[in-house]
Amino acid sequence: MRTHNFHKFWLKITAIVIGSFGPIFFFGTMVSTSEPARWTLDLLSLPLDGVQNYNEPTTRFLSALTGGFLFGWGVMVWCLSIWVHEKAPEQVRKAVLVGILSWFFLDSTGSIASGNPSNALINILVLLIAVGPLWLPAKNEKY
């Protein structure tokens, strides 16, 4: 299943995985809609104990930044899949892979340093889903 067409399809999966966190954290910017973001943060910093909250304006602001970056990154990967992939499939694959690996290492290291090692473990699952077949180049084929 390592064809260019399957990679192109998987880039859309990757875009959804990345971008889906954007709206969740965007809604964390307002107290009245922050529960999904609070719960997600609580899940990512296991155990589910309710310690994570969105009471502070600085947390809500950081949630706005995080939501915007993640949604924008997801949209960018989607656009690469529809506008660029056919012209440069291997370069798109590598660019997205390097971006995901960069996120994984920085996010996981920061999670461990901040006392939330459970997020680093959850990141492994997100990494595997987001990357899927993009780990390896597509077999030689014509579009």
Describe the protein's architecture and organization.
There is one protein chain. The protein is mainly alpha-helical and 143 residues long. The protein has one domain (4-135). It has 6 helices and no strands. Helix 1 runs antiparallel to helix 4 (57-84) and helix 2 crosses helix 3 (35-44). The longest helix is centred in the middle third of the chain and has 28 residues, at 57-84. The protein is elongated. The two termini are 14 Å apart. The mean pLDDT is 96.
Distance between the termini: 14 Å
List low-confidence stretches. Answer: none
Number of helices: 6
Tell me the β content: under 5%
How many domains make up the coordinates? 1
Tell me the number of strands: 0
The quaternary state of the protein chains shown equals single chain
SS-based class? mainly alpha
- Roughly what percent helix? over 70%
Query: What is the approximate shape?
Result: elongated
Largest sheet: none
**SSE pattern:** HHHHHH
Overall pLDDT confidence: 96
Rounded to an integer in angstroms, the radius of gyration calculated over CA atoms is 17 Å
